[in-house]
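Hey L., structure's done. Input below.
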Amino acid sequence: QVQLVESGGGLVQAGGSLRLSCAASGRTISNYVMGWSRQAPGKEREFVAAISRGGSNSVYADSVKGRFTISRDNAKNTVYLQMNSLKPEDTAVYYCAARSSSVVLRTTKYDYWGQGTQVTVSS
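Output:
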């Protein structure tokens, strides 16, 4: 019932930055834990980050902690992923997702998914 559309992906050099956006429609995201996951070619989908419903706290995968920041603007029904100090191993399709929950966990189990946006980091 929630439509999620990612944008902001592209090609960036190692060490660079990129900000992904996830625009939601159909329902307000205020009642959802929001998250980002990614999937590299030939790999299983991997948890990246999640943020609480009000945006007061967030959790990250160890591989991105300190480099990535998840945020949300409930008034705009939008979630963001700021990615800094990008590495070639960050190359993947990045997916925005929503969970009907109040608990923020490191998980790839979500109720709704976006179509994904490609992020490619060159060396």
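The longest strand covers residues 18-25. The mean pLDDT is 97.

-- N.
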